[in-house]
Amino acid sequence: MLAEAAFRLLRKMPPETSHVLGLRALALFPEVSLEDPALRVRTALGTLRNPVGLAAGFDKTGSYATRLAKLGFGYVTAGTFTASPRPGNPRPRLVRLREQEALLNAMGFPNPGIEEAVRRLSARRGGKVPLMVSIGAVEIEEMVRCYRLAQQVGDGVEVNISSPNTPELRSYLSGTKFRDLVEALRPIKSRPTYLKVHPPIEGLWEAVLSAIRVWLDAGFEGVTAVNALPTEDRRLSTGRGGLSGRPLFPLMMRAVNELRRRFGWEFELNAVGGVFTGRDAVEALSTGANTVQLYTVLAYRGPYAVRRILEEILAELRARGLNSVEELMRWVP
Are 142 and 114 in contact (CB under 8 A)? Predict the structure, then answer.
């Protein structure tokens, strides 16, 4: 197929070049979604056509949400967007780890700024695939500004306090800053809102759990777990970045298990990190996730990865004698 041939060519290019050209090439792709009632799930974003979402970071500009939805996602996440435009870190800032089916990134939030992102995303308002808008800011005042604007175009918002390439975000996990953030966001909340958190890292995880308790007690809908794993690597211009892909899957599953055990079943949990197959997705969903999110698998398996994962989920359902994803999620009330 022409699309597969194009993907093989893109994989031979430097990873960031490949990513940008791949996004542009989506305009030439036909819709490849898979519609099956067995895949539908109910969430605060509405009833999704399937539980597979696009993770934040793939569409950093807000220009490709509609094109990406054609790949079959149940919802797409655009961003992360900051209050002002940012060029991100110097290159090289993206490295493939082929043997591990992983990526190292030190992107540093390159984006056009929240105002321009909202302008671009306004054009796709009313699409059949819900849109999540990811925002991030070190200062509470800037996060509030991003939150107000993101809710104008997003069906939901993801608040990112965990990017490994913006270590200043860890300030939310000390003192009263996170509680102050929650108190600033809660009065202006009009859309389902999720907190994106660090993986379970020694010395940080207990603070993450404390923040999640504050978040859920304030009435926010849920959590997205987990962000990339902080990793040092001299191939990156900054000498450090975030590891995503296959190696993250065990950490994501540990987080899903622990968050359900600690906080119960009354909040939504989006699982992200190393989901490459339908079996991976089923494992996360049957353990406690409401949805799974993809990123790195697209870099290794190409634009048809979503449809293949959905087909594999359906096969897993049949093998278990189940009629729907929600039946698989036995923990759903």
Answer: no
Count structural domains, the chain.
1
Residue 247 lies in a domain: yes
User: Would you state the structure tokens that stand for residue 22, as one six-digit string?
Assistant: 């791949």
Q: Which domain holds residue 219?
A: 2-328
The structure tokens listed for 243 are: 């590891």
Among 271, 269, 280, 274, smallest CA distance to 312 is for 280
Structure tokens at 314: 């359906």
Report the predicted TM-score, pTM, of the whole model to 2 decimal places: 0.95
Write the pLDDT tens digit of every residue in 114-160.
999 999 999 865 578 999 999 999 999 999 999 999 999 999 999 99
3-state secondary structure of 291: strand
Would residue 124 count as lying in a domain? Answer: yes
Amino acid identity, position 159: V
In a domain, 244, yes or no: yes
pLDDT at 116: 98
As a whole number of angstroms, the distance between CA 36 and CA 306 comes to 14
- Look at residue 333 and tell me if it is in a domain: no
Answer yes or no: is pLDDT of 1 > 80: no
Catalytic residue among 18, 134, 163, 244: 163
CATH of the domain at 310: 3.20.20.70
Tell me whether residue 190 is one of the annotated catalytic residues. Answer: no
Phi then psi for residue 291, to 5 deg, are: -140, 165
| Run of H or E residues at 56 | strand 52-59
- Residue 292, beta-bridge partner list: 52, 271
